[in-house]
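Format notes (please read before filing issues)

Several people have asked whether sequences and structure tokens are stored in separate files. They are not. Every record keeps both together, in the order shown below: the sequence lines, then the token lines. Line labels are part of the format and must not be stripped during preprocessing.
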Amino acid sequence: MGAADIWRSAKHYIDQYGLLAEFQAGNRAAECNAAGDMDGVRVWKAIYDAIDEVRRVEMRDGERLQ
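Then the structure lines:
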């Protein structure tokens, strides 16, 4: 999964789950870890980090998440 896909996934999770987006992405990473899917863990960790970065930028700019 490329960087653009990571950012699109992060945006999708923010749109779908709002303030629970990081929690949901963390759960997916944990599910992958439990299944021994280390590639999945890396992808979901990247999505989690992207969600965090989007929120920091939006908060810095004074914008609110919907």
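For reference, the curators noted about this record: The chain has three helices and no strands. Residues 12 and 39 are 20 Å apart (CA to CA).
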